[in-house]
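Example S7 (structure tokens).
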């Protein structure tokens, strides 16, 4: 089943997933021999080989009560988890077997009136890449093996569930993208995150940040949450998703919060209670796909089937899908919209080896913790996003970026902008960033060369991207030329590279205004007017300027004044984001009238004087 086919099915009905696999297997009181010996006791995935009747029985239990989708017994099926039982080498075989068992059982129950589907279950593994437990590529490769086993074994779709670290989720999604590109049959994908009782994912990720990070992935058809709590505790997050997600929403709660009784997790939510909450989520909130996680039995799930079958396409509640979602970027913790009211989004400029003496010195000293401190300072100064550039002559930019990203990912709460001209630096950064980053930048200086390399990375990791108005003939100077280059990038990025209008942030180039150079007399006004033209033509797109460039060469006081006045007029023309020193931007009333006037004349080329 492709993503399109899944969406089509969801147009007319609610889809019902099965209930708990793990706790259902436990309830079969399986013994050592079933698992294939003492060494494998508790390895549920090995049962696919040693005792296929056990997962088969779980599937039957749920198919009997009428579910639409059963999940394969492969939650812990990556080599990462199987290694704990010495079974890493058998990962492909185990996943393939899990898929075959589920496929065979589902097919037995499938009728022309009621198709039964198989979802390949992919758990979070036992490692958190954001904490350095495992490298992104190693995790991605383990997931690739699982994906191949599941798809070749016959699943209809894949579900990455119980996600705890968005970097783990990204590794799973990168694995799928690579498999599909290698010719493995493409199937629909569901991503389901776990919000712990404290209200965030295990890594501290808020629901909005998770949605912002996963939403850009075009291979993901459905997004939602499962595990950790019962439905009651999920209510506010389910409401958030239904109001904000452009993708249909998935909810699969536990049978309440587990209670530890004699070392065993016990779940107490009754089928009545589950029915009450899920009915509310479907009918009042607009959830599209429902199921049960830990502790949910066929009796619980029969109530979900009842909810779904009471709704036919005539009375199906409108599934809320927010196509007018707010384009945002995100750190591992929280998100920031790409347009704020009042504007602009402030992008701190100081974590730049070429733009800050202090950052450069920290970099040269290898003082990565000091760099984290500088990032945190900018947050206190009012920055919303941070530009990060570690390019420095004579240093290994890839290595420096890796060291910085490993720390910034979890230690800096603001979303990051990855500022580099090197593709491999960009990719190594994106691989270590759990949130949704902005890539700085693409242009048409060498024709499509740079877009061809960078945009697939943006797609692969879900990043937004800055597009500079530079083409084969150089930096665009007039508003018309800036707009023309922006439009060319816009059309290519969308039609050829699958980007969306709101993934793009145009930079109409900030030249130095105080240089006295005749060629740049109009530079300020042309840059600002180009912002206006782009916002008018592409209303869902964004604009950005590196404002401090405008005042290079002037004294400090003049720089602050000119930067502030330039920013003021650019924002008036529709600028969304500005790379600035957050601390040094002043409201206009703090600049004396004469200063304001001189800056304005400089920006709009109205000068009545010849020197500043
Ligand atoms: N567009 C995009 N990205 C950009 C730029 C742009 N990235 C880099 C740059 N331009 C924006 N960042 C800075 C950072 C610092 C300064 C200017 C632009 C700056 N620094 C002081 C100086 O050089 O005098 C030094 C301050 C210090 O040492 O503390 O002015 O346009 N997409």
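Recovered sequence:
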């Amino acid at each position: 089943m492709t993503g399109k086919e899944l969406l089509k099915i969801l147009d007319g009905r609610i889809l019902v997933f099965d209930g708990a696999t793990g706790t259902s297997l436990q309830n079969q009181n399986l013994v050592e021999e079933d698992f294939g010996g003492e060494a494998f006791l508790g390895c549920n995935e090995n049962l696919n080989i040693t005792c296929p009747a056990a997962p088969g029985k779980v599937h039957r239990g749920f198919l009997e009560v009428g579910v639409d989708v059963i999940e394969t017994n492969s939650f812990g099926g990556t080599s990462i988890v199987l290694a704990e039982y010495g079974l890493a080498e058998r990962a492909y075989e185990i996943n393939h077997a899990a898929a075959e068992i589920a496929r065979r059982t589902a097919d037995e129950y499938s009728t022309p009136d009621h198709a039964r589907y198989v979802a390949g279950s992919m758990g979070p593994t036992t490692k958190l890449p954001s904490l350095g437990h495992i490298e992104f590529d190693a995790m991605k490769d383990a997931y690739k093996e699982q994906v191949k086993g599941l798809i070749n074994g016959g699943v209809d779709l894949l579900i990455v569930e119980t996600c705890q670290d968005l970097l783990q989720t990204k590794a799973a999604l990168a694995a799928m993208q690579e498999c599909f590109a290698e010719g493995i049959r493409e199937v629909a994908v569901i991503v389901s995150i776990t919000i712990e009782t404290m209200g965030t994912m295990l890594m501290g990720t808020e629901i909005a940040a998770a949605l912002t990070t996963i939403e850009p992935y075009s291979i993901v058809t459905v997004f939602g949450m499962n595990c950790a709590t019962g439905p009651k505790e999920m209510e506010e997050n389910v409401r958030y998703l239904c109001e904000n997600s452009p993708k249909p929403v998935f909810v699969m709660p536990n049978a309440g919060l587990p209670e530890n009784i004699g070392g065993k997790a016990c779940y107490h939510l009754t089928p009545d209670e589950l029915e009450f909450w899920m009915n509310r989520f479907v009918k009042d909130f607009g959830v599209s796909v429902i199921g049960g996680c830990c502790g949910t039995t066929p009796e619980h799930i029969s109530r979900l089937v009842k909810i779904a079958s009471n709704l036919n396409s005539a009375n199906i509640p409108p599934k809320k899908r927010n196509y007018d979602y707010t384009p945002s970027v995100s750190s591992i913790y929280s998100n920031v919209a790409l347009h704020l009211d009042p504007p602009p989004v402030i992008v701190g400029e100081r974590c730049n080896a070429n733009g800050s003496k202090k950052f450069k010195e920290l970099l040269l000293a290898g003082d990565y913790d000091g760099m984290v401190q500088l990032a945190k300072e900018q947050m206190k100064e009012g920055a919303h996003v941070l530009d990060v550039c570690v390019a420095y002559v004579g240093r290994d930019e890839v290595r420096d970026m890796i060291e910085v990203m490993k720390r910034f990912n979890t230690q800096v709460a603001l979303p990051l902008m990855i500022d580099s001209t090197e593709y491999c630096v960009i990719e190594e950064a994106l691989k270590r960033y759990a949130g949704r980053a902005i890539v700085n930048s693409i242009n048409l200086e060498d024709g499509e060369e740079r877009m061809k390399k960078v945009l697939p990375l943006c797609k692969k990791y879900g990043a937004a991207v800055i597009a500079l108005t530079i083409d084969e003939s150089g930096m665009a100077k007039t508003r018309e030329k800036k707009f023309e280059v922006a439009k060319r990038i816009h059309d290519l990025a969308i039609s050829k590279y699958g980007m969306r209008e709101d993934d793009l942030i145009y930079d109409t180039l900030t030249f130095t205004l105080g240089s006295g150079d005749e060629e740049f007399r109009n530079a300020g006004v042309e840059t600002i007017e180009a912002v206006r033209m782009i916002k008018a033509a592409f209303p869902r797109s964004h604009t950005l300027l590196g404002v401090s460039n405008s005042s290079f060469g002037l004294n400090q006081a003049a720089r602050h004044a000119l930067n502030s006045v330039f920013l003021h007029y650019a924002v008036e023309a529709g600028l969304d984001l500005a790379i600035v020193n957050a601390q040094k931007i002043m409201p206009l009333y703090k600049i004396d009238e004469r200063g304001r006037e001189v800056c304005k004349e400089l920006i709009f080329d109205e000068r009545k004087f010849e020197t500043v």
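Notes on this example. The pocket of (6S)-5,6,7,8-tetrahydrofolate is lined by residues 349, 352, 355-358, 387, 419, 440-441, 466, 507, 510, 546, 548-549, 579 (CB under 6 Å).
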